[in-house]
Amino acid sequence: QELLDHYPALKKYYYGVDVPGVKKSFQALAEEFRIQIAEDVKHLHFLGLPTRSYEQQQNMNKTELAKVYIPLDFHQENEKKRIDLERIINEHNRIVVLGHPGSGKSTLAKYLAHLYAQDASAEEKDSGKIDGRLPFIIPIREYVRLKPESKESFNFIDFLKYKAEDRYHFINLDVDIFDALLVMGKAIVLFDGLDEVASESGR
Question: What is the pLDDT of residues 101-141, one digit of tens each?
Fold first, then answer.
């Protein structure tokens, strides 16, 4: 009961109770997020590569990530044995991916978001390969840039609300929605680009 009282969006989800600030059913809102995120991470975006025309650049940005993605090799630190990506995700709640600049960490984050954002069938979910969580990517350099401009209590959940309204054009979202998604285990957060934040205080 305390959990339900703390997260109004949970009441909306489980009991259909009308809660101020929660305009849509929780499940419907989550599915809207899934559609928007799936479209956002569907294509690769090439930056800084010279092309002959604007049209060529636009065609390059239509390259589907899933069709060209090359799986990376994963190893536990100081070990040589290769580890399967799906096994890592299914066995651990928190994962840190280390790699040299340009080794594909950001593309991996985008690829994982693509996999999670797919509307998996029941058979796929039962296989353990896809668990249906809603993926959110947080570019750390963008989060750090926004944080000093905001109040001191601005955290990554506030950032998720900001991004949903700024990038996906959702209106008047309740920040409790994101908190509830995480509490229920319905979301996964992918922090990208820690090495792109120069100062130690920012990290």
Answer: 888 898 899 999 988 888 644 444 444 455 678 899 999 88
Q: How far apart are CA 83 and CA 95, in angstroms?
A: 13
- What's the gap between Cα 174 and its chain centre? 18
Residue 106: closest CA among 193, 47, 188: 193
Please give the C-alpha separations between residue 100 and each of 74, 104, 106, 111, 134, in angstroms, as whole numbers: 13, 9, 11, 18, 28
Determine the Cα–Cα distance for residues 150 and 144; give it in Å rounded to an integer: 10
Q: Which two tokens stand for residue 87?
A: 């096994």
Residue pLDDT, tens place only, 117-127:
886 444 444 44
Residue 111, judged by CB atoms within 10 A of its CB (0-12, 13-18, 19+), counts as buried
- Cα–Cα distance, 40 to 65 (Å, whole number): 11
How far is the C-alpha of 55 from the C-alpha of 79, rounded, in Å?
46
What are the tens digits of pLDDT across the range 73-98? 888 777 778 888 777 887 888 888 88
d(C-alpha 128, C-alpha 79), whole Å: 25
Length of the chain: 203
At 96, list the tokens: 């840190």
* Cross-strand pairs, 188: 135
Most confident of 12-16, 21-25, 101-105, 124-128: 101-105
